Amino acid sequence: MRNFMIKSVAVGAAVALALTGCSNDRDGGSGDSASGDAKGFAKDALIGVALPSKTSENWVLAGDLFTNGLKDAGFQSDVQYAGASTTVADQQAQITAMVTKGAKVIVIGATDAAQLSTQVSAAHQAGAKVIAYDRLITNTADVDYYIAFDNFKVGQLQGQALLDGMKAKKPTGPWTVELFSGSPDDNNAGVFFNGAMDVLKPLIDKGDVVVGSGQKDVKQTAIQGWKAEGAQSRMDSLLNSTYNGNKTLDGVLSPNDTLARAIITSVKGAGKPIPVVTGQDSEVESVKSIMAGEQYSTINKDTRKLVAETINMVKTLQTGAEPQVNDTKSYNNGTKVVPAFLLPPVIVTKANAAESYANDPKLAPLTK
Ligand code: BGC
Question: Using the 8-state DSSP alphabet, how is residue 96 labeled?
Fold first, then answer.
């Protein structure tokens, strides 16, 4: 059983394999730890969707898709974003308001994984179901389901892409890298980092990959609030402290596209060659950067699919049945193992961009 809270740093390859195996098993168990007293609810019930602040394009898209998709499915919806600064308090108040208004399901993309136990407990007491969307909610028994792309796999794909990109430029190591991770209050940040380290750590231990600054701990690499300016200023400092002489920087592990572009901006500003930089989210500007040969990789986590699957879960709950999950082992939130429905993420580089985005009207034209 793997604890996916940020504190769990060491994750074995064997367990990772187990998760990969689970991801394809869409029929595996209905989640014995889910609250099983669902009686269903009205077809036009209110569904609350509480999303974090708009730290990447996927969150903007998710809000629109939930508003339209829930309406098309016949539900009333209340879709809210946490504000840009007082995010935790905003989201807590929004969830409380959804409970008061009688929402039957509350879908939550948590701003801070560990700060929602009071609100989700109130939701349960009022008879609502709670779905953690994209980001796990930790330290509470009051979360019924988790739906997300397989985020540990995202990290593994990023770690492997970093290696592949560096090898393509310089076939033999050692390779010098820097590591970045996301916001410490987002449970995903640690999961992405652990996934990447699952691939990179054996090479770091052997000396084939060298972290130039020595900053290898998730705490040293974190960027509060997933802010571009935070990543740019950390990269500026690293370039000044570690790469002001002749030392070459071969690669940077970046957990998402917003941070990847900030890192590239910093490197360009310093007049240095752009290293291999990873990313995630398939943001428009990053896809353009990949096609221009700057950013090396991104991850395709198709928000349209994730929202559609979440709405399917809501529809199933409406009938009083148990939604389908495909992982009942991996997502221990510190209090319980949350039954999860995981979708597979896809690595994208210039080589497979056209194929990966063929069905995406916004991104496909960029790859021509
Ligand atoms: C999401 C990523 C996103 C990040 C910042 C994470 O929880 O999984 O896709 O890049 O939040 O918005």
Answer: H
31 Cα: distance to centroid of ligand 1 (angstroms): 25
- DSSP string computed for 259-306: HHHHHHHHHHHTTPPP-EE---S--HHHHHHHHTTSS-EEEE--HHHH
280 lines ligand 1 (CB under 6 A): yes
Q: What is the pTM of this model?
A: 0.89
144 close to ligand 1 (CB < 6 Angstrom):
no
For residues 317 and 36, give the distance between their C-alpha atoms in angstroms, rounded to a whole number: 11
Ligand 1: atom nearest CA of 56 is 12
**How far apart are the CA of 71 and the centre of ligand 1, in A?**
25
Question: Per-residue confidence at 179, pLDDT binned at 50, 70, 90?
Answer: very high
Q: Which residue's structure tokens are 């990053």? A: 286
306-322 tens-digit pLDDT: 999 999 999 999 999 99
Buried/exposed code over 150-188 (b: 16+ C-beta within 10 A; e: otherwise): bbbbbbbbbbbbbbebbeeeeeebebbbbbbbbbbbbbb
From the list 6, 112, 4, the residue with the least C-alpha distance to 52 is 112
Report pLDDT for 86.
78
- What are the structural domains of the chain? 23-149+302-344 (3.40.50.2300), 151-300 (3.40.50.2300)
**Quick one: tokens of 36?**
């099983």
User: In Å, how far are 56, 162, 216, 345 from 194, measured between CA atoms?
Assistant: 21, 15, 11, 16
Structure tokens at 175: 């390779």
| pLDDT of 18 strictly over 80 | no
For the Cβ of 150 lying below 6 angstroms from any atom of ligand 1, the answer is no
Q: 263-270: which pairs have CB atoms within 8 A and are 24 or more residues apart?
A: 263/180, 263/231, 263/232, 263/235, 264/289, 264/294, 264/295, 265/232, 266/231, 266/232, 266/233, 266/235, 266/236, 266/239, 267/235, 267/239, 269/236, 270/236, 270/239, 270/243
Alpha carbons 298 and 346: distance in angstroms, whole number: 9
**For residue 152, how far is its CA from the centre of ligand 1 (angstroms)?**
13
* Pairwise CA distance, residues 250 & 162, whole Å: 9
- Ligand 1 centroid from CA 56, angstroms: 7
Provide the angle, in degrees to the nearest 10, between the axes of the packed helices 151-169 and 13-23.
110
